[in-house]
């Protein structure tokens, strides 16, 4: 048997039981131990009771924490509903909202169309294709998509070529040998902004 003293509490209890049994069975070898078998067994019983109490306390603590978290979650949920109700009831009036301990938020702004796309340029071109790039509008609502449109010079009607999400696009399979004008418009659910500057190309 190893001489290393056990570390785990369960191993300590097991070793203590072996010790008590050995002392009881071999009084001729160990006639006057500092702690006789009876004392060892009593201490084992007390330690086991302490372990049981600690286990029960841990379970009770976890249950208490879970209950506390549930109650806080319910309280916070109802408080938020009351604050939202208060915002609507007093039309976001900060002085009136202060009476219920809430700081005003800005009333949601209505979505407006984006402004005019800026700095449309042709970055590269080849037979039947070209690369366009542009910059966001300086004003207006948030951009959702960009509409790339094309026409032949002199036509009043623009045709949609592609919808882009980024600030650049490659347009392929374009008509060759013709003058073409391109522009880009920013759009969102509220509508479209003004067309960008026009660029002209012959592919």
Automatic annotation (TrEMBL):
InterPro entries per record:
FN3_dom (IPR003961), FN3_sf (IPR036116), Ig-like_fold (IPR013783)
- The molecule here is called Fibronectin type III domain-containing protein
Gene3D superfamilies, A to Z: Immunoglobulins (2.60.40.10)
State one Pfam family annotation.
fn3
Q: Species name for this entry?
A: Candidatus Kentrum sp. DK
Which residue intervals define the domain Fibronectin type-III in the entry? 113-203
């Amino acid at each position: 048997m190893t001489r290393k003293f056990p570390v785990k509490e369960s191993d300590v209890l097991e070793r203590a039981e072996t010790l008590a049994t050995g002392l009881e069975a071999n009084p001729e070898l160990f006639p006057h131990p500092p702690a006789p078998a009876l004392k060892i067994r009593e201490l084992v019983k007390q330690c086991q009771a302490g372990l049981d109490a600690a286990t029960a306390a841990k379970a009770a603590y976890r249950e208490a924490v879970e209950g506390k978290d549930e109650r806080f979650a319910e309280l916070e949920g109802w408080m938020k509903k009351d604050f939202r109700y208060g915002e609507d009831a007093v039309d976001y009036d900060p002085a009136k909202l202060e009476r219920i301990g809430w700081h005003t938020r800005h009333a949601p702004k209505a979505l407006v169309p984006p402004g005019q796309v800026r700095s449309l340029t042709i970055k590269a071109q080849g037979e039947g294709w070209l690369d366009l790039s542009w910059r966001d509008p300086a004003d207006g609502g948030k951009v959702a998509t960009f509409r790339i449109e094309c026409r032949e010079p002199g036509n009043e009607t623009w045709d949609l070529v592609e919808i882009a999400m980024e600030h650049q696009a490659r347009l392929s399979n374009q008509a060759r040998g013709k003058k073409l004008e391109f522009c880009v418009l920013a759009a969102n659910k509220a509508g479209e902004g003004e067309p960008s500057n026009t660029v002209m190309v012959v592919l």
